[in-house]
Each structure stands twice: as structure tokens, then as C-alpha cells.
Amino acid sequence: MCFEALLAILLSLAVWNGDAALSPESRTVLYSPTIDAICRVGKTPQEQAWLAAQAYSETHLASYVLTERCSAGPVGSRCDAGLATGPWQLHLHCRDAWKATTYQERLDAGARCAVRGARHGSTVCGIRGAFGFQTGIRVCSGNWIEPRVRLYRLILGRMAEVQR
């Protein structure tokens, strides 16, 4: 149920402008490995919604990111100048997200690393901390956090609707 719900939700969100020509079928193929990782790693609907919101907020699920071709992205959007990887834009502290052998293993490792930070941040300052602690600076507020919190709540609410 997780996969189907998240796929429907993510397909309903605005597509990255560079992928505007992709059909829903192509986007399904593109998004599927990330959604698989989210559903495997997220232990609760809240974690799954958080992982989806964080991935979308970081990358808009752009094809150049999801196909590990960050250098092909637009200037200023190349995965933190090559310092970040995957849909959660993780840096080197998440070694397995960089070094796992297969793409799916890298996605799973990235989701595990991202959700560990989210769990820690949420114990300090709730959902805002889940997003804020991803920066390495560990903040509980900021104008960039609020849109992520709104997206998280939207995804979580839609997941509950789909799963009824």
C-alpha cells in the first residue's frame, strides 16, 4: 500500500521543469527505486511521508539526480557542487549512500541515514527538527523549513486518505 500511495502522491506534485516532457509512465519508472527505498526504510507512515517530503524538497525528484548524473544538472543545482548524492542530498557523513555497490543499495542506505537524522531532530524539536537536522547545523526553525513541514503534512494526509 505504501508504494501505490506514494507513487500517486508524488506524481501529483509539480514535476521539475527539466523533466516537464516526461510522461507519467516515465516518471513512474524514474521514481520507483526511490519509493521502494522509502517504503522499505520508513518504519511508520510518518517516516515514509518525511522521506518523500525531504526527497521532493531537496531535488524535486529531478531525473539528473535520480539517475546519478548530478553534473548534468543546471549550474547551481548540481548536488551541492558534487558534495551530495541521492534524492536526500546526503554528504559524506552518509558513507554507505556513496559506496554501496548497487543503485538500490545506495538509495536504501541514503534513506536510512536521512531518517536517522530525522529521528534525532524530531526528538529535539519535532517535525521542524527532522528537517532542520539534515543540514548538519541542527536547527529547529527557518523560513526554508516551513514549506517542507507543509509538504510533509500534505503527503501524510494524502497517504491516510489513500489507505482508507
List keywords for this structure.
mainly alpha; single chain
Structural class: mainly alpha
The fraction of residues assigned to DSSP E strands is under 5%
Number of beta-strand segments: 0
Q: Return the string of H and E elements.
A: HHHHHHHH
Q: What are the low-pLDDT stretches, counting only 5+ consecutive residues below 50?
A: none
Give the end-to-end Cα distance, rounded to a whole number of Å. Answer: 10 Å
Fraction of residues in helix:
55-70%
Number of domains: 1
Largest β sheet strand count, sense and barrel closure: none
Give the mean pLDDT. Answer: 95
Q: What is the radius of gyration computed over CA atoms, rounded to a whole number of angstroms? A: 15 Å
Shape category: globular
Number of helices, where a helix is a run of at least 4 consecutive DSSP H or I residues:
8
What does this entry show, briefly?
With 164 residues, the chain is mainly alpha-helical. Helices cover 64% and strands 0% of the residues.
Overview of this protein structure:
- With 164 residues, this protein is mainly alpha-helical.
- It has one domain (2-162).
- 64% of the residues lie in helices and 0% in strands.
- It contains eight helices and no strands.
- It has helices spanning 2-12, 24-41, 45-59, 63-66, 79-82, 95-99, 103-132, 145-162.
- Helix 1 crosses helix 8 (145-162) and helix 7 (103-132) packs across helix 8.
- The longest helix is centred in the last third of the chain and has 30 residues, at 103-132.
- The protein starts with a helix and ends with a helix.
